[in-house]
Amino acid sequence: MKRALMLAVLPVILLGPAGQSRAERTAQVQMYNSPEMNLEEIDRSILDQVGAGGRINFAFYVLSDYTIMDSLRGAAERGAVVRIYLDPRELEKLTLSNDHPLVKLSRTRNVEIKVKDLKDGPMHLKSYSVNGVLLRTGSANESHSGLERQDNDLLVISDKPTVSSFDHKFEVMWARPSNTKFNYQ
After folding, report:
1. 121 within some domain
2. Which of 17, 28, 29, 79 stands 20 to 30 A from 98 (CA)?
């Protein structure tokens, strides 16, 4: 069952610039639920396909799943531009070190991480876009329990206006002057 559901996502994800008009014509929404499914596998199947010329706009309240951080780093190492926007409260809960996956990710070429200012309220989104053609959203945080044990959903949407709406919101958040760049020393 897991494999069949994951394969349903692949045709949407594999669309590159030449396939964008097809994505615009055939908007799709796929919904996945945990704990019935391991949502980490869905996210990995998406992120592990992004490479040279790709773009990921990633806004998450919680980012503590090492596998997802490794997938984001892999996308950047393959040439994708990866921008990550995080909530400061959740970031403070992590025990960081030089070999923590988030620190390694932050030091990877093509990766930029910004943190919302604490005084501006929580950044509670759990979404990312890929190449302007795919939006991943839902209630699942990028944590082990959020992806595998909690009752959560994950939606994969290939509707161009919906993806554009998220990307616009991401740009507004990304441009806030009160943001800080993530920096571990």
Report:
1. yes
2. 79
> Which residues does 125 contact at the CB level (< 8 Å), separation at least 6?
59, 60, 61, 85, 137
pLDDT score, position 107: 96
Domain of 148, CATH number, reads 3.30.870.10
Distance in angstroms (rounded) separating the CA atoms of residues 91 and 41: 23
Tens digit of pLDDT for each residue in 48-79? 999 999 999 999 999 999 999 999 999 999 99
Q: Is 154 within 8 Å of 88 (Cβ atoms)?
A: no
Cα of 158 vs its chain's centroid, Å = 15
Q: Which CA distances in Å does 96 have to 86, 100, 106?
A: 15, 6, 12
Give the CA distances from residue 105 to residues 14, 41, 72, 124, in Å, rounded to whole numbers and listed in that order.
24, 19, 7, 21
Q: Give the residue-averaged pLDDT of 90-99.
A: 91
Q: What are phi and psi of 55, to 5 degrees?
A: -145, 130
